[in-house]
Amino acid sequence: MASQLPSFPRFVFTVLEPISLLAGFFPAVLFPHWFISEQIATWGPPVASTDHAQLVARQLGNCYLLAFLVGVAVLYTTTEIKVVRNYLVALWLADISHVGLTLHGIGYDKSLAVGEWNAMTWGNVGATTFLFLTRSAYFAGLFGRDGPRHSSGEKKAQ
To answer: Is the pLDDT of residue 74 over 80?
Structure first.
């Protein structure tokens, strides 16, 4: 259960991350042409997008919504910290591939030109790296131990 997480990772995983997933969902579904053209920062006219590319962008947006829903379901309903930790391990692995695929997609030179990154690249690389590092620090115990489990029927020790 997310309430057992230390304060900082609990806030990051139960508030910031769900908001970031919705921030990926809405533009991909509502503005797929813009979403596609922002994936790689370019100077000049926006990149043309095909119906095929727009469909894929909307499907990706749907995946962001699915990730949001699964996260909310896991973090707000389970009573098992083991389930929360396993969910976070899965996200930790996905963070690695997400950043790696993004950097591969934008290429070596643009990967190093951090000052030229647009908001989309900062979201895909910067925000995901922040989530990865927060998960890594949590797994390493840098935020302290998970809190005690209290079910609604248990009395707290006085």
So the answer is: yes
